[in-house]
Amino acid sequence: MVHIVKRMRKLRELLWIRVGPGAIIFPKEVSRIRMEFNEKIAGGHRGARKFWRDMLPRIKYRNPSVPMEVARHKDKDGPSILEIYTNTIKPALPASSSQQTPNGQASSSTEPSTDTPQKAAHTIDMRMAQESDILAQLIARTGATVIKATEAELEELAEIEEQKERSEKDRVEVRDKLMAQRREEEMLKMARGEIVAEN
Amino acid sequence: MAHIRPFSAPLSRLGASSIASPVSCTRLSSIPYQTIRCAAMKAKPAQQKKKKTRNTFIQYDLKRADQFTLVDAMHYIRAFEVGRNPSSSKYEMHVKVRTLKNGPVVRNRLRLPHAVKTDIRICVICPPGSKAAAEAKAAGASLVGEDEIFDKIKEGVIDFDRCICHTDSLQKLNKAGVARILGPRGLMPSNKTGTVVSQVASTVQNMVGGSEYRERLGVIRMAVGQLGFTPEQMQTNVKAFMDTLKKDIAQMSDRITKEIHEVVLSSTNAPGFSLNGEFRNANSIPTKDISGPL
C-alpha cells in the first residue's frame, strides 16, 4: 500500500478540488453537460482537454447530481464543443427526469422531448480556446454562482504551496548528493576495470 | 600482478579526481602501509551490528489520518472520475491487515450482491464429451476440453481469465507441461486454490459474477463496484466483502492472529480514501445526488 504519509498529503491537497477555478454551482435548470473533443491536442483541442482535466472535477464536485459526459474522437478536425442541456421543469429526479425540454432560445416550438433533450441549450465552441475562457463562457451562459475560497482555505493553500517549494528544494539536494555518490562509484569501477584490462 | 590488487581498496577513499591523475602512481611505493589499511577495511563489516530483521509489516497510527464516510468518499471519487468511461473505471477496496510477513495469507473467492464484472471467461479442463463437460458448458464456461486447450496454451493463446480442472483430468493436466505458462499468470489449477473440483458446474456458477481476492504484502485488494453504483449498492457490496474477509480471518485464527487495520476505498483514477466505517455524516450530501449516472 502507498505510504500513509504520502496518501495523507495527497488527501490534504484535496483542497484543490474544493476551491479554485471551476468551483461553481449551477442553477437548478442545468440538467446535463456534454463535451466533445479530440483525443490529442492537435488542432486546437488543448484547452478543451485542460478544462476537462483541471476544472471539470471541481464542477462535478460542486454539482454531483449533474451528469457530465466526455466524448473523445480521433479526428483532429472534428468538433470541439461543450454542450449544456437544461430543462424548464425543476428536476424532481435529477438526471433521469423524463420531462426535459430544451429552452435554449426560449422557443417553445419544440415538443417536450422524451428521455434526453434532443438539442443543447447552449453550445460553446472550445477550439483554440484557453481553459479559463471556456470556464468564463460557461459561467456567463448558465449564470452559475462562483464559490470564493474562504480565508482559512486560502491560508492552507499557501501552506501547501510553501511545502511543495520546500520539498522541491530538498529533492534537488538529495539528488545532487546521490549523483555525486554514484559518480564516485562509477569512477572506482572504471579504475578497477582498467586494472583488469592491463592484466 | 598480485601486488597491484590491494590498491583497489585504498583508491576508494580517494576523491574521484585523483584516480585519473598521475598522483596515484606515486603511491605505488608504499605497499606495506596500504595492505594494512586494506585489512582494516575488511575487518570493518564484521564489526557492524547485524540488522535485526522484522517479521511484521510496518504499522502506522491512524489517529491523525483523515478518514471519510462512504458517501463523502464516493462524492470525491465521482468528481475525480468525471468524463471517464464508466464501464472501465471501478471502485476498489484496499484492506490493510496486521499480520506476519511470512505467515499464511488470506485467499478466497466471493460473490458480491452486485456483480462488478460480468463478462468473465472461464476455461474448464475435463474430458470432452463427459457429463462434466456438458454441465460446464451449461453453467457458462467459455472453453471446455482437454488436449485442444493444452495445445492452444502452448501456442500462447490464452483467451480466458479463470481456469478450473476436473479431478479426473488433473493427471493429464500435470503431464501436459502447461504449468510453466499458466503458473506465472496464476491460472494453473491446483487443490490449494480450490480450482480442482469434481463438481464443475457449481464452481463455474460461483465464478461467473464472483471475484477472487488474496493478501499480498499485508494488503487485500479487490474491485468492489462499478462507478454507476449508488451508495446503497456500494454499502451492501462493501459489507459483503468485509464479512467474508472477517470470516476468513476467523478461520485461520487458531494458527495466527490477523486484524483489520485500515480500509481504503479508491478507484481507477482517484486517490485512496481511508474509510471510517460510517455510511454518511451530517455534512454529507444526500445520497440521491450521487446515485445518478456519472
UniProtKB/TrEMBL annotation, chain A:
Domain of life: Eukaryota
Subcellular location: Mitochondrion
Keywords: Coiled coil, Mitochondrion, Ribonucleoprotein, Ribosomal protein
Positions with biased composition (Polar residues): 93-117
One Pfam family per UniProt: L51_S25_CI-B8
Coiled coil residues, start to end: 147-184
GO cellular component: mitochondrion; ribonucleoprotein complex; ribosome
Chain spans, region Disordered: 93-120
UniProt-listed SUPFAM superfamilies: Thioredoxin-like
Domain Ribosomal protein/NADH dehydrogenase residue range list: 40-145
Main location class: mitochondrion
Molecular function as annotated in GO: structural constituent of ribosome
PANTHER family: MITOCHONDRIAL RIBOSOMAL PROTEIN S25, SMALL RIBOSOMAL SUBUNIT PROTEIN MS25
Protein name: Ribosomal protein/NADH dehydrogenase domain-containing protein
Organism: Pleomassaria siparia CBS 279.74
UniProtKB/TrEMBL annotation, chain B:
Record GO cellular component, one term: mitochondrial large ribosomal subunit
GO MF annotation terms: structural constituent of ribosome
Cross-referenced Gene3D superfamilies: 3.30.190.20, 3.40.50.790
Domain of life: Eukaryota
InterPro entries found in the cross-reference section: Ribosomal_uL1-like (IPR023674), Ribosomal_uL1/biogenesis (IPR028364), Ribosomal_uL1_3-a/b-sand (IPR016095)
Keywords: Ribonucleoprotein, Ribosomal protein
Family: Belongs to the universal ribosomal protein uL1 family.
Name of the protein this chain belongs to: Ribosomal protein L1
Organism encoding this protein: Pleomassaria siparia CBS 279.74
